[in-house]
TrEMBL record:
It comes from Vanrija humicola. InterPro entries: Amidohydrolase, Bact_exopeptidase_dim_dom, Peptidase_M20, Peptidase_M20/M20A_hydrolases, Peptidase_M20_dimer, Xaa-Arg_dipeptidase. Belongs to the peptidase M20A family. The lineage of its organism: Eukaryota, Fungi, Dikarya, Basidiomycota, Agaricomycotina. Residues 192-275 form the Peptidase M20 dimerisation domain. One of its GO terms (molecular function) is dipeptidase activity. This is Peptidase M20 domain-containing protein 2.
Length: 431
């Protein structure tokens, strides 16, 4: 973990931290009730209508300025607080979509209330200590499927925010580790459809054009290619529709693939290597093929000063060890639409451990743990840490300047890839 010489644990936030922590603990029962409600009422991506209404009503009751259906997205929202005139704007994020079949197995109920708790803590500190600036909490739908933050970036939802944070729960991550700040992978999905011609599989198979053969050839071609992929490049896919009946030559099949690697430029090259397999399979079987290549979920590039300050606060105030490793060696294998946010502004996305048991995210076991009192207690510690980082960003001009400088230097490494608002979340249709 890198700690810069003038980044002392909790510096710039010591006077305000007690206020932050007190406000969050005072709201803890109300926040836990919201989290428990979300957990019991899971809604999948872009279907979070009940959550949208519940959360916006809660935030209005808490006294925040709230914009419903923010930027025209039906389940997005914005809550904010401003004190004084001028000053920076610090952003927070709340996710609240669930997974099909396993509900809040990614702990988005905790992500949601972590963002709200940090907002409450920052407001309290800004009032008590006369801190000028603005804190914005964005309600961001559809992280699991739909790239909600990418769509919000396209629509200008993050405009005017100077730096941004959110936090995500995790399973056991190593002995003595209470949280992680690590890079994640860039990802794009490829939807594949093969169109053939049906025929009776026994009476006249020669009259058919077999779309399932095309899918199988493409699958085997890509599986064979894996030996030649570089370290850190990943391709994984499934057949989502394989036909309708065993005695009918399939006229239609569908597949879905995810392609991942460490940065956007390499990802484009990986996709260019994969796509010919689909066309070759269509050619070999006489089928037609249609590809839908999604917009980019970029790799996660943390702003180092934000990561280091968060780790310092968590160590100083809670005695917790946050493992910060922003190198390629520290990269985690998942992906998130928050990656695009880290290309648009200085940002940080810590993970926090809520169990020392083996269950990982996206399992029924993890969903159960995300509803427990210990998981909520850790969530409010993490929210306190994020709020402390936000307060330091608002009050310490040197820290804010160093954060922006580190982010600009990180963006210089990737050059023209930084215009994430134009990467797009809409599907690109290729024949």
């Amino acid at each position: 973990m890198r700690i810069e010489p003038d980044t002392v644990a909790g510096s710039g936030t010591a006077d305000a931290f007690a206020t932050i922590r007190g406000a969050i603990l005072a709201a803890a029962d109300r926040l836990t009730a919201v989290s428990t409600w979300l957990h019991a009422n899971p809604e999948i991506s872009f279907q979070e209508y009940k959550a949208h209404d519940k959360l916006t009503a809660f935030l209005e009751a808490e006294g925040f300025a709230v914009e419903r259906r923010y930027t025209g997205l039906e389940t997005a929202w914005k809550a904010s607080f401003t004190r004084g005139s001028g000053g920076p704007t610090f952003g927070l994020n709340s996710e609240y979509d669930a997974l099909p079949g396993v509900g809040h197995a990614c702990g988005h109920n905790l992500i949601c209330v972590a963002g709200i708790a940090a907002l409450i803590g920052m407001r309290a500190a800004m009032i008590a200590h006369d801190i000028a600036g603005t804190v914005v909490l964005l309600g961001t739908p559809a992280e699991e499927a739909g790239d909600g933050k990418v769509r919000l970036l396209e629509r200008g939802a993050y405009n005017g925010i100077d730096a941004c944070m959110m936090a995500h729960p995790a399973g056991e991550s190593g002995k003595g580790v209470d949280g992680l700040v690590r890079p994640c992978l860039a990802v794009r999905s490829i939807g594949v459809e093969f169109f053939g011609k049906p025929a009776h599989a026994a009476n006249a198979p020669y009259q058919g054009v077999n779309a399932l053969d095309a899918a199988n050839i493409a699958y085997m071609s890509i599986s064979s290619m894996r030996q030649q992929l570089r370290a850190g490049e990943m391709v994984h896919g499934i057949i989502t529709h394989g036909g309708d009946a065993p005695n009918v030559i399939p006229k239609y099949t569908a597949m879905e693939y995810y392609c991942r690697c460490g940065d956007a430029d390499r990802l484009d090259k990986l996709i260019a290597k994969i796509v010919p397999s689909f066309h070759a399979a269509a050619l070999a079987t006489g089928c037609e093929v249609k590809l839908d290549i999604s917009g980019l979920c970029a790799d996660l590039r943390h702003a180092a000063p934000l990561a280091d300050e968060y780790a310092s606060v968590m160590a100083a105030e809670f005695g917790q060890h946050i493992d910060v490793d922003l190198t390629e060696a520290g990269r985690r294998m998942g992906s998130t639409d928050f990656g695009n946010v880290t290309y648009a502004m200085p940002a940080c996305h810590p993970h926090f451990v809520i169990t020392d048991l083996p269950p990982k995210v996206h399992t029924a076991e993890f969903a159960a743990i995300a509803a427990t009192p210990p998981a909520h207690e850790q969530t409010y510690r993490v929210a306190s840490g994020m709020a402390a980082v936000g307060v330091r960003f608002l009050t310490d001009e040197a820290f804010a300047a160093r954060t922006k400088k580190a982010w600009r230097e990180s963006m210089d490494e990737v050059g023209s890839l930084v215009d994430v608002a134009k990467w797009g979340a809409n599907l690109v249709h290729l024949q």
